[in-house]
Write a structure and sequence with these properties.
Elements: H1 11-15, E1 18-22, H2 29-42, E2 46-49, E3 65-70, H3 79-91, E4 96-100, H4 103-107, H5 111-124, E5 130-134, H6 142-154, E6 159-161, H7 174-184, E7 189-193, H8 199-208, E8 212-215, H9 218-222
Parallel strand pairs: 1-2, 1-8, 2-3, 3-4, 4-5, 5-6, 6-7, 7-8
Helix pairs in contact: 3-5, 5-6, 6-7, 7-8
Length: 233
């Protein structure tokens, strides 16, 4: 039975929401070059890579955006380190930064510390650079999700993002995405990442409030072949 609450987005429409991602530690330059070529062929919004892989050669006229992670994957870096890493990534061509919060600060309900952390990175990479804040929602209570989302918005984040995809607690859930979207309202967007493997997964996350998706197995997802869906991020 079809769930009428799920938007019937076409694969092409879903592709335009995807940050096509490669963050494995063993990724090579050749792997990232292949990632870019695949992203262009699939029509994804961007590629998301480790900052050490920058700069990237993007085909002229493709419109492909470049995102890089900061403080990844633990978030247990100083704010100054995150800010410097983000600024260096932007100088090397990144259009967007996906930063990881200190999840321990969130668990301690020290939302002022979370806000200060995000503020430091935002100051280092002002608009028009897009700043996404990874909160590891699966490791947080609802109260903590609300607290960190409010802190991120106050600090000037453009997106709050569910997960790194590397945390053992898991990735995106519809519940978390919906709660995040309700919390940030029209002040920011929500990116769902971690475990988004099929078109139905993607459509459910969009229905819950996501406007961007982090996907490493984009070709499998857009071909709606869950057997080939990506693990992890």
């Amino acid at each position: 039975m079809t769930d009428n609450r799920i938007p019937e987005l076409t694969p092409a429409a879903v592709a335009r929401l995807i940050d096509h991602t490669l963050l494995k530690p063993e990724a090579t330059v050749a792997d990232v070059e292949a990632l870019v070529a695949e992203a262009v062929a699939l029509g994804t919004y961007s590629v998301c890579v480790s900052p050490s892989m920058l700069p990237l050669a993007v085909p002229a006229g493709s419109g492909l955006k470049i995102a890089a992670v900061t403080g990844f994957p633990s978030g247990k870096h100083t704010s100054a380190t995150k800010a410097a890493e983000a600024a260096q990534a932007v100088a090397a061509g990144a259009d967007e930064i996906d930063m990881v919060i200190d999840v321990g600060a969130a668990k301690a309900h020290d939302f002022d510390a979370v806000q200060a952390d995000v503020t430091s990175v935002r100051a280092a990479v002002p608009a028009p650079t897009v700043l996404k804040v990874i909160i590891e929602a699966a490791a947080l209570s609802d109260e903590e999700i609300v607290g960190v989302c409010r802190a991120a918005v106050e600090a000037g984040a453009d997106f709050v993002k569910t997960s790194t995809g590397f945390h053992p607690s898991g990735g995106a859930t519809e519940h978390a995405v919906r709660l995040m979207a309700e919390t940030v309202g029209d002040r920011a967007h929500v990116k769902a990442s971690g475990g988004v493997r099929t078109l139905d997964d993607a459509r459910r996350m969009v229905a819950a409030g996501a406007t961007r998706l982090g996907v490493s197995g984009s070709r499998a997802l857009l071909g709606s072949d869950p057997a080939e869906g990506a693990a992890g991020y």
